[in-house]
Amino acid sequence: MAIEHGTSAMIENMGENVDAILMPVIARSFIKKGKSKILKFAGKDLTIDPKFKLFLQTKLSNPHYPPEIQAEATLINFTVTEDGLGDQLLYLIVGRERPDLAAKKTELIRQQNDFKIKLKELEDELLFKLANAKGDILDDIALIENLEDSKKISIEISEKVEIAKVTEAKINETSELYRPAATRGALIYFLLSDLPKIHSFYKYSLESFIDVINRAIDLITEGIESKQKMYEVDADGKAIIPEEKKRKAPRKSTKKVEEPIKEEPIEEEVKKEEPPKEGEEKKEGEGEEKKEGEGEG
Question: In angstroms, rounded to a whole number, what is the distance separating the alpha carbons of residues 7 and 54?
C-alpha cells in the first residue's frame, strides 16, 4: 500500500462527507514503536513511511468540511478566478511576445529566492556559533571575523535586492502594456464557461482555451511579420512608411501634352471675273469672225 511504500495517494471527486475509515489517516492517529510509527487502518497495523502523502480532491466550488478535517488538512483552492486567469494569460502573452522580459523576471525570482536562502543560512550559522561559543565572545577572533563576513554579505545581498526590486518594477510596467489582451482573454473564457447553462454541448476546458490563445498569437505574429516585409511596423502593429518611400511617391506629371492641331479648312479664293467692256467685246467678235473666214477659205 501507499502508506507502507511511501508513495502518494489521491482520492478524487470527494463530497462534503468524508468516510470514517479515512479519519485515522487524516488525524494522524499513529502509535510509536521504537523508531517506526504504526497506524491502524481497516483493522490492520501498518507502518507509516515518512514519504507518504494523501491528497483529497473535490469538484465542489465552496466545500464545507468539519472543523477537525480543516484543522488537520491543508485546503488549497484551485478554482479559476477572473483575476487569476488574467495574470496567467498575461504571463503567457509576455512569454510569447517578449521572451526577454519573461526570462529576466524568472531570473530575478530565482535570485531573490537564493538571497533569502543565503540570509537564512548566515543567520542559522551565526546563531549556532553564538550558542556554542565558550568563554568570552570578544576573545573569540574566529567568531568576530565570521560576524564581520556575515555583515558584509548581508549588506551586499540587501543592495542586490534593492536593485532587483527596481528592475522588477520596470519589467512589470512593461508587462502591463499587455494587460488589456489578458483581461479580454479571461473575460471571454468566463463567457464560454457559462454556455453549458444553455446546452451541455458547449463545454470548454482551460487547456483547450489556452491552445486557442496560443494559436491566435501565432496568427497575429505571422500577420505582423508579413507587414514587416513590406513596411516597418511600430509597437502597435501599424505600418510606418519610410521617408525614402515617401519621397519616391508618384507625383503628378508637369509635362505639357501637345494637343493635335486642328486643320482649318482653307478657303479658296474665287476670283470674280469682271464683265468685259463694249469695245473689247467687239474686237473679240471680229477676231472670231476672221478666224472662221480663214477656216472656210
Answer: 9
